Structure formats: structure tokens, C-alpha cells
Amino acid sequence: MDAQERHNRRVMIQRVKLLWLKGVLEESLHGAELIDLNMAARPNAVADSYAPGWQQGDEFDTPLPIGTKIWDVFDDAGGALLIMGAPGAGKTTTLLQLVTDLVQRADLDEAKPVPVVLSLATWQGDKAVADWMADELVNQYEVPRKLGQKWLENGRLLPLLDGLDEVEQELREGCARAINQFRRQHPGKPLAVTTRVRDYQALDTQLKLNQAIILQPLSLDQIDIYLASVGKRLAGLRAALQTDASLRELAQSPLMLSIMTLAYYRMPADIAISLGGGELSRRLLFDVYVERMTRYRGGEKEYAPDDAVRWLAWLARQMAARNKTMIFLENIQPNWLPRSQQRVYADRLKFLLGGGIALVGLAAGLVGWMVSGWPAFLWGVGLGAAAGAMVGLGGRFLARHRINWNQIETIEALDWSWPHAGFGSGVGAFVGALAGWPLAAAGRERWASLPWALLLALVFGLSQLLENGLIRSEVKLRTTPGQGIARSRRNGLLVGVGSGTVTAVFLLTVLTLTQNWLDFQVVNALGWIVGASLYLGVVGGLMYGGLAALQHRRLLAYLQKNGVVPPDYVHFLDYAAERNLLRKVGGGYMFVHALLLDYFKMLKD
User: Fold this and answer.
1) What is the pLDDT of residue 385?
2) DSSP-derived pairing of the beta strands 114-119 and 80-85
3) DSSP E strands, 222-349
4) CA atoms of 540 and 557, how far apart (whole Å)
């Protein structure tokens, strides 16, 4: 392993620790000790099992010895394990316990693979699992695609696939088959998958893994040890569990125990929760939990609790509708607006951009009028109106760049291609020269005596140099909220200022050097130089990030007007994360558990 590969490996290990061990696992413990969950082997849950076909019931589960560690189970399974459990049973936490051990192994031995947690919720069924993994490494871990593919192929990474049940229901069967195909193509390579037991049992396809385990409910001793590890402040909850059977049953779920811990810890000592049965009990617990969290550390002074709950409920419904477990600000799209507003949003954006481009023509016309008279003014206004119509009505900036009014496409990283730039500028210059010859015959007035073939060849060549030379490069890891939008805004500003400045300097230089040879005055071309520079500056800035930033800003304004997001949305999401309603992971946010997302999405407006 050379120095560069060793460096890349160390960076990858640190990212796993930051995103999952510190960002998720540590935050979920609330200062308590990690509970070692009881497990049972379920051989008939995996394909090609040695268990007889008639052993399909829960009664054939084989309990594992108390205190068995998940990494020992993983090793015994030959590194091919299915982890099942009920909602809130601790599947992700168990997976992260496995990550903790696997990361330690990778730290000590360079030959060991680096574990990477990948959420199956993003799998859309349009590609093989290996290709999907490479995409997720780009999006979640900032690993260049080619490097990620190489690491996966060489066994440098150990994929841990979280949440088969979170794949869209109609795609879930195909996802299971795709995982099996991946196993066939990569025999012997380690893999772990987590899923809700009921959703997995509904599938016709079983995963080709070596062993399956199902997480067991917490015992009373485990619950008591967990609460004791927090200290005397939960003595009231410990006492309540001894006398309340319904509460005790709910506490057997690690998630519900965690919620009880936070809810009871922040309740006045003389208040008890009135618990009924089943779903009502869970709903009441979540009600108390959310109410306490929205007031935690004076939270009601920042946002009214009712507003905070309403905004989170809207977010949960949007995420559930799109089957997302993690949300980035960049994921918020125009189709999050009510259908009646989506067209209004697009039409107003078209008018804004088309009008802005038309104003560029007006500015060029005014400069032309001052140096060449009214004909130049009319040409500037006319060309500006045509360019504005091409944007607003035709949906194009330049020759090839179509505008997607209904999709915000961030431009987070740019690269330069000399072959594409050279070809594009050559074609553009040729087309511009052909278009310029007819104009030269229009007359001998000052505005018409310019070297049109040269002028249009330069302008068209520069426009195609800009459109073809700049290309998107690998997407970078979003480590802060809204980073993709900020990068797009920055790229748009840099490209806009750069292309406008280069156009002005280049045109002035070339025309000044050729004015005596071609017998014209460069001052007569000032209107066209101003127009071309402003146009390519504005269009270049919009094409390469500015449009995404503008769309996002206007979209949030619409959503704010609808009352579904606050003005300072990132601050609100951070507020919700601080109060354990959301979890902040890198540049994105997720609800602390799928059950809490379900709770919020069921709340009425």
C-alpha cells in the first residue's frame, strides 16, 4: 500500500467515525451505557439454509448466549449476516456496534476492510447494487467514483446495508434480488443487511447470506441496568416500570426506552403519564417526548412549539412521500409545492430570467446609442428581447443548455475540458463568421461598418467555449447544511464574473489590434462589446450554479409564505437536532428514528 492509498484509507476511516459513530451512535445514547441486546438465530430466514423447510415459525429460533457480541456473530456467519428486528428494536444501533469493532480492526490492520454504512432507502431499482454503492460513496463519503469502484472490487470496503424495509415497497423485491446478484458476483466478500422482520417476511426472495439473527425485546434486568447507568434522576421511571405493566412492555423496545428516558427526565417529578394500551401508549409517549423537546433549553422562546411541530410534520410527510430517510436542503424541489403553485413558480421564474436578459440588451442598446445612434439602440433592444424570449419561452440559455424549470440542479464542482472547449469554440466561430457576412452588406453607417464576420465569430466562439469547456466534476461530500447551494452560488458568481470579464477584455483586445487593418473604429463596437460581455456573464453565471441558487431561494420564499417552513430554515433544523427530534449527519438531517418520522407524518395540519 503506497502513501497515497494509505492516506485515502485513513481519511475514509475518519469519515466513518465522524458520520456514524460520533454523529449517530454517540448522540443516541444520551449519556447512558450501550445495551447489549439479546439475539436469536433464525436459520430459515436466509436462502439455502440448512434448516428443514417446515421449520418456518418463530418457535424454531435459537437464542444466542446472553452477552453474545454482534461482531462475534458476524465472524461466525463468515461475514454474511442478516439482522432483523421489530420497529425500534435497535437494528441500526446493533449495526453501529458492529461498525465500532470493524473500525477498530481496520485501525490496527491495514489488510482489514473499512466498514461503510449505506442506507438502502436511496436505492431506486435503476442500477446494479455495485453501481448504487459507488454512487452512495460519492454522495455520503466524498469518495471519487472510480476510487470507490476500485475499493469495492478489491475488497477494501465492507458494505453494511441498513434498512431493506426502507426501500419503496414496489422495489423491495427487486432490491433483494439485486443484493443476491451482488453476492453471486462477489462471492466470499463480507456483507451485512438490516431489515424489519415483517417487511422481510413479506418478500418472496430470501437473501443469500450465511446467517440471520432477530433482535429480542429487552429484559427487565437490561432495562433496569440501563436506567441505573444514567443515575438517580431516573429513579421515578425505574419505580414506574415496576408497577406499570403497559409501560414495562413498551420499554422492551430500545427506541421506546430511549424516548421514555428523555421524556421522564424532563418531566416534573410529580407528574405521571397516563398510559393505555398499544398504539395509544406509543402516541402519548411521543406526544410527551415532542412537547418536552420543543421546550427544552427555552426552545419555546425561539419557536412556538405548535409551529415547530407543524413544520416537522410537513417535513416528515414530504420525506415519507419520497421514501427518504435523510434530507438535504438540496433535496427540496419545486414539486414540494402544492400542485397549483408549481406552475406559478415556474412561470414567474421564466418571466424574471427572460426580463433580466432583455435588460442586458437594453443596456447594450443605450451604450450603442451613445456612440453609434438610434440604429444600434434598436438592434440592442431587439436582440435583448430575442435572447430573453429564448430563455423565458424557449427554455435555453445557449445552443445546447436547456433549462429545467421544475428541477433544481446544483453545480457543486466544475472542471475544464480543453478538447471540448477547442471543438466548441471552433464550431461557434465558424457559425458566427457565416452569420456575420450578410450584416456587412447592410450599409456603411457607423453601426453597420463593423467587421461583423470577425465580431460574431469571436462572440459565438466565446459562447461555445463557455458552454462546452466547463463540465461538472465529482460531487463533493456535503458536510454542512446547504453546502451544495452555497457551492452553486459561488460557482455561478465566479463563472459569471470570469466569463464577462474575459469576454470584454478579449473583444477589446482583438478589435483594437485589427481596427486599422479592417478600417473601422473600435469605439463603434462598444455597445456590442458591452452586450456580449454582460450576456455571457449573466448566462454563464446562471448556467453554472446561479440558477440553482436563485431557484432555491425563491422556492424557500414560497414555502415560507405557505407557512410550512420558517424564514431561517437551517437554524430551525439545527434547533430540532439539538432537541433530539432530528439527527444532524454531515450536511443532512434525519429523524432520530423511523417511528418518530411516522409519528410526525400522521399529525394533522
Assistant:
1) 95
2) unpaired
3) none
4) 25
pLDDT at 198: 87
What is the number of structural domains in the chain? 3
Handedness of CA 462, 397, 427, 436 (dihedral sign): negative
CATH number for the domain that contains residue 59: 3.40.50
| CA atoms of 63 and 65, how far apart (whole Å) | 7
Please give the radius of gyration of the chain, using alpha carbons only, rounded to the nearest integer.
Answer: 31
Looking at this protein, which amino acid is placed at residue 117? V
pTM reported for the whole predicted model = 0.70
Choose the final residue of a domain: 151, 181, 216: 216
Asked if residue 233 and residue 212 are part of one domain, the reply reads no
The span from the CA of 547 to the CA of 388, in Å, is 15
Position 223 scores a pLDDT of 87
Q: What is the pLDDT of residue 278?
A: 46
Taking the C-alpha atoms of residue 347 and residue 112, their distance in angstroms, rounded to an integer, is 55
- In angstroms, the CA 590 to CA 121 distance is 12
Q: How far is CA 537 from CA 364, 462, 467, in A?
A: 13, 11, 12
Shared-domain flag, residues 122 and 207:
yes
Strands 80-85 and 414-416: unpaired
Residue 195 lies in a domain: yes
Classified as helix, coil or strand, 62 is: strand
- On whether residue 253 sits in a domain, the answer given is yes
Residue 150: all three cell numbers together = 476500485
316 with 557: CB under 8 angstroms? Answer: no
What pLDDT was estimated at residue 8?
86
- Those residues of the chain that have pLDDT short of 70 are 23-34, 48-59, 233, 263-282, 296-298, 439-449, 474-477, 605
How high is the pLDDT of residue 448?
53
Distance CA 208, CA 251 (A): 33
Residues 191 and 233 in one domain: no
Task: Tell me if 588 is assigned to some domain.
Answer: no
pLDDT of residue 268: 55
- In this structure, are 143 and 247 located in the same domain? no
Q: What pLDDT does 76 receive?
A: 94
> Domain limits at 434?
339-561
Q: Indicate whether 166 and 277 sit together in one domain.
A: no
In-domain check, residue 599: no
